[in-house]
Design a protein that fits this description.
This protein is α/β, with parallel strands linked by helices. The protein contains 8 helices and 17 strands. The strands form 5 sheets. A 5-stranded parallel sheet has the order 2-1-3-6-7, with helices on both faces.
Length: 252
C-alpha cells in the first residue's frame, strides 16, 4: 500500500507515519508534502500514484482542497484535521474518512482496514464514484453536521436528529428536542451518508431516524402512516412498495 502524507507540521507527520507503520508494517510512505504549491508540483511531476492519501486541511499556504482542485487525484482521501468545520467540503471529494486530531491509533488502523476492504471488492482503477459508494457501505457515515445559524456555527450530532425533511427545495433537520436547522445537502446525499441501520427514507420528503418513529399505523392500499416524535408538520406515509422494507428496518 503506497501512502502519501500531506501535513505541514513535522511532528504531526512523523506521528502519523509511526501510527501507519504500527497498523500496517509493510506500508510504503512515498512522500510527505507540506504545502499546496508543493502538492500541486508533486502530482504534476513525480510520476508516482498513491493508493491512499492522508491529508491535513490547513497548510502553510492554503487549504489542501486547493491541491485537488488543480490536479486530478483518484486516490481515496483520509482527512486529518483539528477542526470539524471542513467536514461538508471534505465529503464532496472522494473522502474515505475524516479524522480529528490528535489522531488515535485505532482510528488510523480503521482507515487502513476500510481501504483494504475496498480493495477486495474493487480492482485498481475504479472511478471515484464507486470508491465513495463502497466506503459508505462499509460504514463511512457521518457522525455530525456543521450548522450555520446567523453568525454562529454549531456541531449537530447525527444521533440527536429525529428526521430530515424537504420544503420548497430546502432540506431541514429536526432534532429530538424539536429544534429545526437548515442542511446544505440534498436528501439523496443524506441517504447515502447516514447509517441504514438508523435512518430510513420514508418517502421523497422525509428521512426518519428509528428513535423518532413513535408508531406506524396501517393505512389504506397497504401504505403505512408514521407518527413521529417530534410531530411532523406533514402526513408522513410509507408507500406499499416500501412498507415491507420499513417493517424489516423497524425490527432490526
Amino acid at each position: 500500500m503506497k501512502i502519501l502524507i500531506i501535513e505541514d507540521e513535522s511532528p504531526a507527520a512523523e506521528r502519523l507515519e509511526l501510527l501507519l507503520r504500527r497498523a500496517k508494517p509493510d506500508v510504503e510512505i512515498i512522500g510527505t508534502i507540506e504545502s499546496v504549491a508543493q502538492g500541486v508540483n508533486w502530482f504534476k511531476s513525480s510520476g508516482q500514484i498513491p493508493d491512499l492519501i492522508f491529508t491535513d486541511i490547513e497548510l502553510t499556504d492554503g487549504l489542501s482542497f486547493e491541491i485537488f482542485e488543480q490536479v486530478g487525484v483518484s486516490a481515496p482521501l483520509v482527512f486529518t484535521t483539528s477542526y470539524d468545520a471542513y467536514a461538508l467540503r471534505a465529503f464532496e471529494l472522494n473522502s474515505l474518512h475524516y479524522l480529528l486530531k490528535p489522531l488515535k491509533p485505532t482510528e488510523v488502523a480503521a482507515a487502513l482496514e476500510k481501504y483494504s476492504l475496498l480493495q477486495t471488492n474493487f480492482r485498481a482503477g475504479e472511478t471515484n464514484q464507486r470508491v465513495q459508494g463502497a466506503a459508505r457501505q462499509l460504514g463511512a457515515q457521518r457522525s455530525r453536521f456543521l450548522i450555520e445559524t446567523g453568525e454562529r456555527l454549531l456541531s449537530l450530532n447525527v444521533e440527536d436528529i429525529a428526521y430530515f425533511y424537504t420544503r420548497d427545495n430546502n432540506v431541514y433537520a429536526v432534532t429530538l428536542q424539536g429544534q429545526r436547522y437548515p442542511i446544505r445537502l440534498k436528501m439523496e446525499q443524506l441517504e447515502q451518508e447516514l447509517s441504514e441501520d438508523h435512518f430510513f427514507r420514508a418517502n421523497r420528503q422525509y428521512l426518519v431516524q428509528i428513535k423518532a418513529v413513535k408508531v406506524a399505523h396501517l393505512h389504506f392500499n397497504g401504505k403505512l402512516k408514521l407518527e413521529l416524535t417530534p410531530q411532523a408538520a406533514d402526513e408522513v406515509l410509507v408507500s406499499r412498495e416500501k412498507a415491507t422494507s420499513f417493517k424489516q428496518w423497524m425490527g432490526n
